[in-house]
Amino acid sequence: MELKQLESFTNVVEYRSFTKAAEKLYISQPTISTHIRQLEEELHSRLIIRTTKSIEITPRGWELYECACHILSLRDNLLQRWAGESRKIIRLGASTIPSAYILPELLPAYGKAHPDTYFSIHQSDSQGIVDGLLQGNFDVGLVGMRCADEALACIPFYQDRMVLITPVNEHFLALKAQGAFPVEALLGEAMILRENGSGSKKSADRFLESMGIRESELQVIARINDQEAIKNLVAQGLGISILSERAARNFCEEKRLLGFELPESAARRCLYLIYQKNYILKPYIQKFAEFVKRFYPSAEPEGAEPVKAR
């Protein structure tokens, strides 16, 4: 079975015509007929029933058509991806915090030094980026959690910390004046949390665990995968949340939210650059990875446990 035979077959199915299929592929009609016959002989199945007035596809023909379309699509995607290498396109996966707050700083700076490099960017939660990288969908990823999968290199490049954010009202202003938020008060407040696949959620879980607080003890009223939505809901008084300091910074500076620092050892975290260890990074991708590692000072958060990719 050859790709050119599958191309002939799929075009005959789609056009319901040997003549139109031949015109589409710029080959002769007898060649199309030969390809179909060779497929039928190899598969020991009738694929197309051809009469003087019509062309009918057999059940086995439809089954082959579905598989052939998938095979040809894989080929086309591979060729397109490899053809793009001459244009230095980096397939970059970024979780929520890196995509919203790091890339707007990082990419313009990199672009000035490397104007011939382009990016195809996919945004998801941290676990989604890890999974996509393992499946070969990205060249590199930027995520908010450490990954312990042995197939991945996981390099810290940005020091972040988690903060508690609250609405601006008399109650929380009084607590702010005291200098710290009493941890036990978390149990009496409505909480808005990130979704389970995010690095921010895992960091918040680590903080709560260090304080001896189980999530089941909290009054969780919503789980949201967008930190901008969380900030807006907290600002409107719906509840409080534990969020990345980098994400909360603008709302706190604009006095739309109050930010409370959490204990240093439990609140610190890093953002990570990840890529497959057994892949040889192309020179222009390696340059980008080196640039990311130099752009921000990095340090390992104390007490951070690796998160095993699922």
Helix and strand string, N-terminal first?
Answer: HHHEEHEHEHEEHEHEHEHEHEH
| Class inferred from helices and paired strands | alpha/beta
Q: What is the radius of gyration? A: 27 Å
What is the beta-strand fraction? 15-25%
Distance between the termini: 37 Å
Shape summary: elongated
Low-pLDDT runs: 301-310
Average pLDDT number: 86
Using DSSP, what is the number of strands?
Answer: 11
Number of helices: 12
State the major sheet.
7 strands, mixed
- The percentage helix is 40-55%
What this model shows, in words?
Strand 7 (190-194), helix 8 (199-210) and strand 8 form a beta-alpha-beta unit. Helix 1 crosses helix 2 (18-25), helix 1 (3-15) packs across helix 4 (59-83) and helix 2 packs across helix 3. Mean pLDDT is 86; it is low at 301-310. Strands 3, 4, 5, 6, 9, 10 and 11 form a 7-stranded mixed sheet that branches. Strands 1-2 form a two-stranded antiparallel ribbon. It has a two-stranded parallel sheet with strand order 7-8. The chain is elongated and about 90 Å long. Helices cover 46% and strands 21% of the residues. The chain has 12 helices and 11 strands. The two termini are 37 Å apart. With 310 residues, the chain is of the alpha/beta class.
